[in-house]
Write a structure and sequence with these properties.
The structure is a homodimer. Chain A has about 500 residues and is of the alpha+beta class. Helices cover about 35% and strands about 25% of the residues of chain A. The first copy, chain A, is globular, with a radius of gyration of 25 Å.
Chain lengths: ~500, ~500
């Protein structure tokens, strides 16, 4: 019954052979996660949770810098609350887990485990907001949520997952719209800067928007198998929840008015995006800014010089660990070559080799995970040089993600080309769409591709040149007049 | 139905009049929390959650510095898992919330919402640990847990609460014991340094220990109403869970052996301790290190100088906010006096007043929340001086907590004195105890006081001199030979 992970370190299915299996191999063998003994649930192992901690560390200060505060709302939502917002709630009903017993008794009212917290937070907002002086109210919550999913996949779709959900109230529609777009910008910025993802910010169609929202904005990213992933969303909720939950404020003019709201979230599925965007057939590749380990030191020591080299390696670790997340792999039971493979598989951005000749020459060898490049670095200049190499890896991963997305984007003019492109090239399709929900639904029915987004104007992304090329094209489905070109793809 | 908090800012019940109501007044009116529309659940408002973020910020680096990593395990625990560890589980059964439906169907097996995670984590450990090389395994988790409590009180006892739970595996009993004591020391250190609590670390009796543990250690703190609070616990779990969950490792000698384990945790009840240890009749008093706001700037501006003073106040805020958590209260609808009261009630450690004469003299007035002391500080030396004042507040709160605990500790020699002390003086009682569970149970039955702990030898605490005085006293209940003096109290 016991798995002996170590013997299987190198046995990762290639992406070409079976992409799904490759994904699961990387997630489990890099020790990002393990399966829990509950259907659809997973354990975040320290190496996977460490990535989430880095993502939190990248996002949370950005939330605070834009005026938000963190709070924490209950895990449970009474059923009657959810029923008040039927339009929103219906979408979640099939996915809800229900608590029916507590304290040894059947509960008078069932409690939903939050699939999202609009209902609870809006209820509290109706108590806390009285006047225009209380606005805007800008809260965020880091928490777990539960959605009972039929088909699950590590990080991407699990029964329980971790996320943040921002919930804000404003005095006007314009302010809510500004906020929704501001937070979409925060996501785009963080995903590009820290996760090295090349994202496409845009608007969801009516069919794809969040239930109850006026407008849903999204950041979409292309995975290396050619499918898109919705990496984060930001909703302008209008006054839907404010009306359902009576969130009223006394305005300057003496009138009681409903607030305007937003909500926005990203989740641990971002870890899935990191795997699928940057990983290769040898395993995980992590961007240095979110890597729990930025560099690993592997001593290469013949027996007679073992102590001497280990001592130097320890000194090196101590020097570097003030500025970087560094580990010394001093395990005796494994050869250096075995360690190289393991740390490559686990995606550590830089390997630092230290052997007898290096020691004599007062240098180390730096090896980049992303492209395998090796270089000598003198001990004296090392802390600085390592920083430069890490920056180069970060930058290079972002450029590569951008280039891949750009070259995987095709402009198509009719459904035959649409179908052929999906089968042969996969990736993103930029095409005209008349704006009709019927065309959208039929394309989805015929091809399993959905409109990922209507890209925002004025934002340069990997699909910008395709959008320019597609300008004015008729609807790819009905041939009718196109409002604007949109991005289609199959997705996770 | 709407509460208008603002009109009630100053209406805090005095501690002498009704301590429980004072506590609830402070918790709600300082906007630390609000009641949720679910029995026993509360909302952590930003100001309360901000304290928790500071506590996390104080503890998490200490956990990491002692070699621990964070991970995340599922919210749900299958019923069959809990039944495997019946001895441990029985204590939790009455408090468990059960999920019986998910995804529109009744579940084949009910799922408990974790009241604590030993069962789940030990199951995973049995998969992850194979060899002595995998030890020690040192994990921690920050999460929510649920215990269906009959009587609840904000922060101290709520159906859902937030905590961290450390879970470790070791190769020997000695290492596990060392770890349990190390983490108790980490708690004691953090609670003293950052929360300014004067804690008494000690051993729980068999009757009071964690179900399934070999030994439970605790840090106890005395609240201002004379009741003790268990502020954190660290358990040497021995091999109980290792046997139940088959956590075996192959030792150097080729033998399969069960690991030795610990678990340890502190929760959001620490926020309750902060309220009850430092608060006074005017409201909350927060130690600067965990205060979400360390200083508030209140401009005192006659109408004609309003803009001038506000500009200076903004400059001051910008100067200070690089080093401190500072807020400028520039609300127009409230007078300076009203603001003074509100920020005192909310426990901000230092108020900074800036009026016309201060502006002219190039200075501000600093007012300490803990003792009301005012001083002038020149703008030039301000950032440094504010730091000194904050340090002085932190230090003074700790000394005060220590002195209060010391003077509230009585040595008693017989049950008559025991009873009289509990009624008149409350506080901690140091007395001899023969070690018999019968004596312990009868004292609890007669007085509602329990043995809070057997204080650790060699640790100087506010009860040290009482312990010295009580050395060699016979058992306070039966008059039999005492093992060592112990600490009794009524408790939360």
């Amino acid at each position: 019954m016991r798995r002996v992970d170590k013997e299987y370190v190198r046995e990762i299915t290639s992406r070409a052979e079976d992409y799904s299996q490759w994904y699961v191999d990387v997630a489990t063998k890099a020790q990002l996660m393990d399966y829990a003994p509950i259907k659809g649930c997973m354990v975040f192992r320290p190496y996977g949770y460490g990535i989430w901690e880095r993502i939190q560390g990248a996002l949370d200060p950005r939330f605070k810098a834009t005026g938000h505060q963190n709070a924490y709302f209950p895990l449970f939502i009474p059923e009657s609350f959810l029923q008040r917002e039927a339009e929103h709630f219906e979408g979640f009903v099939p996915e809800v887990a229900w608590v029916t017993r507590g304290g040894g008794e059947d509960l008078a009212e069932r409690l939903a485990i939050r699939p999202t917290s609009e209902a609870m937070i809006c209820h509290m907002y109706s108590r806390w907001i009285q006047s225009w002086r209380d606005l805007p109210m800008l809260l965020n919550q880091w928490c777990n949520v539960v959605r009972w999913e039929k088909a699950t996949r590590p990080f991407l779709r699990t029964t329980e997952f971790l996320w943040q959900e921002g919930h804000t109230c404003h005095a006007s529609e314009e302010e809510a719209e500004e906020e929704a777009l501001r937070m979409l910008g925060v996501y785009a910025d963080c995903l590009q800067e820290d996760l090295a993802l090349a994202v496409i910010p845009g608007l969801k169609t009516e069919a794809e928007k969040f239930a109850g929202a006026l407008r849903t904005y999204t950041v979409e990213a292309l995975m290396s198998d050619g499918k898109a992933l919705q990496a984060g969303t930001s909703h302008n909720l209008g006054q839907f929840f404010a009306r359902v939950f009576d969130i009223l404020y006394l305005d300057r003019d003496g009138q009681q008015k409903h607030v305007w709201q937003t909500s926005w979230g990203v989740s641990t599925r971002l870890i899935g995006a990191l795997i699928m965007v940057h990983g290769d057939d040898r395993g995980l590749v992590l961007p240095p800014r979110v890597a729990p380990l930025q560099a690993v030191i592997v001593p290469i020591a013949p027996q007679r010089q073992r102590e001497e080299i280990l001592a130097a390696a320890r000194e090196l670790r101590d020097t570097l660990s003030g500025s970087y997340r560094v580990q010394l792999d001093d395990r005796e039971e494994h050869s250096p070559g075995w360690k190289f493979n393991e740390w490559e598989m686990r995606g550590v951005p830089v390997r630092i080799e230290l052997g007898p000749r290096d020691l004599a020459a007062g240098r180390v060898i730096l090896v980049r995970r992303d492209n395998g490049e090796r270089e000598e670095a003198s001990n004296r200049g090392l802390p600085g040089r390592l920083g430069e190499v890490l920056d180069a890896v970060q930058d290079s991963l972002y450029r590569r993600a951008w280039a891949f997305t750009e070259k995987s984007t095709r402009v198509v003019r009719d459904m035959a080309a649409f179908q052929a492109t999906l089968e042969q090239d996969r990736g993103l399709i930029v095409a005209g769409w008349c704006g009709d929900a019927g065309c959208e639904a039929r394309i989805k029915g015929d091809t399993a591709a959905t409109i990922r987004c209507l890209p925002l104007d004025g934002v340069v992304t990997p699909v910008s040149s395709a959008l320019g090329e597609a300008k004015g094209l008729p609807c790819v489905h009905c041939g009718g007049r196109s409002g604007r070109p949109v991005v289609f793809a199959r997705s996770y």
